[in-house]
Predict the structure.
Amino acid sequence: MAQKTTNLRTRLGALVSLLKLTDAQVNVYMNTYGKLFVDSPENTKADYENGVPMQGYKQGSSEELEQLYVIMHLLCTLGSVEKMYMPPTLDPNKSVMENQILLEEKMAKHLDVGPGDKVLELGCGCGAIATSIGEITGSTMYGMNIDKSQIEKSWRNPALKKENFTVGDFNVPLEYEDNTFDAVYAIQPMTYVSDPDFTLKEVFRVLKPGGKFGFNDVAALDAYDRENQAHRLLIQHTRELTVFGGFWHYKYWEDTFKKAGFDLLESHGQPAVECIKKEVALYDKYEAVTSFLAKIRLLPQRFFKLMRRMHANAESYIKAEEQELISLNWFAVMQKPA
């Protein structure tokens, strides 16, 4: 079992980087919320039943999204989510990071790869998930991400081959030859897809015949009603907290997978409530400490401003998952026909 977790040294490094941010950099980060998470596309179960087409995330992989992720990654590293995703609660007795490892083991098992196989991660962040999958499977890992600062961090990871990790965007043609990879996977980046049909066809193209694509991402659930104002508010709060973009009922994803040519092997939701509560409790403590230190001027006010923005509306996310309006961990596995 892979045991990679965020250590104290890594957290302190993130803290130092955050403290070095200027007011101008913080303001740019704060302003991205107004550009990225207003009028974001969503398609509900009712839309699906009425034949409404899936609406892609029009902002796509924008400069604002890259700016947001530079700082968001540092904030996540302070907690338990350096890998930048909230895992499902696969074992309520384990920590957030341990549940991440459980999900990665589950993903690796379904990808069915081993030594000598090539595996690509879409939206790979700093390569932390790829490190884990690589240790579990023995495969040769590749990754792409729009945030150069995270790719540069992956280059410093001795467990990864520097040349295999690149700045890249899955909203444009993938820079890989046909039939290159034995498996491809994505853990919570596909919410930013601007043309789902195009991106899934690209994934299909770069996979070898018989190769599998593992998907773990945001999906609307049956209970979400866009006409319900309370539902809409919970989802908007969750969107801003977890920085997801587009929001589509899982049936849209299933149809998109099949349309691209995949055989759908598995598709189901995975609740994350208990993991969310654990991470919220940690950031409650962080926020209280930073608020006090900012008041006595041992920390700059902008640092507390960042922490408040990061932690705002956390209870809404818990309620949205408890009411089964959303899953940030809709798990699906598909295969390119041999």
